[in-house]
Specification:
Pathway: Amino-acid biosynthesis; L-histidine biosynthesis; L-histidine from 5-phospho-alpha-D-ribose 1-diphosphate: step 2/9. This protein is an all-alpha fold. The chain has a single domain, classed as MazG-like (Helix Hairpins). About 85% of the residues lie in helices and about 0% in strands. Helix 1 crosses helix 4 (about 55-75) and helix 3 (about 35-55) packs antiparallel against helix 4 (about 55-75). The longest helix is centred in the C-terminal third of the chain and has 24 residues, at about 80-105. The chain is globular, with a radius of gyration of 17 Å. The structure holds phosphoribosyl ATP.
Length: about 100
C-alpha cells in the first residue's frame, strides 16, 4: 500500500479515541457512521463539481477529501484500504481472464 495511505490509516485509528474537541476524526466518530457517510457523499459531490468545471486544483483537493473521508468510514467498519486494494486486484485478475477468453473466441 502507498506509504501516505498507510500512515493516514494508522493516524485515523489512533485519533478515533482522541477527545472530539481536539480531533476531527474523533468528532466524526462521536457523531456516528451516518454522519461519516454523509461527509463522504458531500465531498464526492464537490469532486464531481470540480471535475465538471475542469478545475484540476480543486479536483486534487476534493479527491483528497474523498479519500480521507472514505478511510474514516472504512476504519469505522473495521475495513482497511488494503481490503479495497485487494478487491481491485481481484477485478484486475478477472478482467485478464475475460480478456484471454475473448481472444480465444
Ligand atoms: N486529511 C485530513 C482531513 N481532510 C479534511 N479534514 C477536515 O475535514 C473537515 C471538512 O470540512 P467541512 O467544512 O466539510 O466540515 P465541517 O464544517 O468541519 O463539519 P460538518 O459541520 O460538515 O460536520 C475540515 O474540518 C477539515 O479539517 C481533515 N481532517 C484530518 N485529516 C487527517 O487526519 C489526521 C487526524 O486529524 P485529527 O483527528 O483532527 O487529529 C490529520 O493529521 C490529517 O492527516
Amino acid at each position: 500500500m502507498n506509504d501516505i495511505l498507510q500512515k493516514l490509516e494508522t493516524t485515523i485509528h489512533q485519533r478515533r479515541s482522541a477527545d472530539p474537541k481536539d480531533s476531527y476524526v474523533a468528532s466524526l466518530r462521536a457523531k456516528g457512521r451516518a454522519k461519516m457517510a454523509e461527509k463522504l457523499g458531500e465531498e464526492a459531490v464537490e469532486a464531481v463539481i470540480a471535475a465538471v468545471q475542469g478545475d484540476k486544483a480543486d479536483m486534487t483537493g476534493e479527491a483528497a477529501d474523498v479519500l480521507f473521508h472514505l478511510m474514516v468510514l472504512l476504519a469505522d467498519m473495521e475495513l482497511s484500504i488494503d481490503d479495497v486494494l485487494a478487491e481491485l486486484a481481484r477485478r484486475e485478475g478477472l478482467s485478464g481472464i475475460i480478456e484471454k477468453a475473448s481472444r480465444k473466441d
